[in-house]
Amino acid sequence: MKDVRVTHIGGPTTLIEIAGWRILTDPTFDPPGRRYSFGWGTGSRKTTGPALSAEQIGPVDAVLLSHDHHADNLDDRGRELIAGTPVVITNPAAAGRLGGPALGLRDWQETVLRAPDRPPLTVTATPCRHGPALSRPIVGHVIGFALQWPGQEHGVLWITGDTVLYPAVREVPRRMTVDTVLLHLGAVRFPITGRLHYSLTAAEAVELCDLVRPRTIIPVHYEGWSHFSQGRQAIERAFAAAPDGLGERLHWLPLTRQSTY
């Protein structure tokens, strides 16, 4: 995608630079080693630290926060960062908890970021369900994001957020053309819930991308935490077996690890 740079910092955290805009997704900057509770008997240990610190990244114009209630999407140092961010775009439940600069969007709602020295950037909320059917009262609300700006030639940049494959997510390719997708993967599982999964499996990711047909597929949020049941190898195998050369569109962004536990 022309004039776009994506830096993968670790987990779901990326820095997206578009025509002068600096947008950070799901900020997670705590060091590795700690175990975090996610509620209802679930939790996870952070195994790898971020590739860059918040100080190394510097100021950002906005944070896109899929949800605030799991530390693998917003941890303590991430909360410190968003306190000084001009705007945090998230789901309404998270906005209510965070207050301050947080703006809550429901599925398919949009907002426009404006500044005098750069093009307007439209942010559209896309649907997510962070687990199996009927799990939302337990797992909470999550959204994804589609980014549009003047001069785009091939479609939106879509950040899926933490979701499984379900009918509302299948609506995305019906409503918009996607050029680049940042896929939240990992097939999250917990011992207490057995084989149930709470984020895209590699097979679901292939099925979704076969519907979306993006030019570029960037995997994120598949590493660095103990609750992921599928890593890079499983994802590569699934896409290598995908039809119509879909695997050739898969691009892995480098991660320079600062610390590992």
From TrEMBL:
Residues 22-222 form the Metallo-beta-lactamase domain. Keywords: Hydrolase. One of its GO terms (molecular function) is hydrolase activity. InterPro entries: Metallo-B-lactamas, RibonucZ/Hydroxyglut_hydro, UPF0173_UPF0282_UlaG_hydrolase. The keyword RNA-binding does not apply. It comes from the Bacteria. The keyword Hydrolase applies. This is L-ascorbate metabolism protein UlaG (Beta-lactamase superfamily).
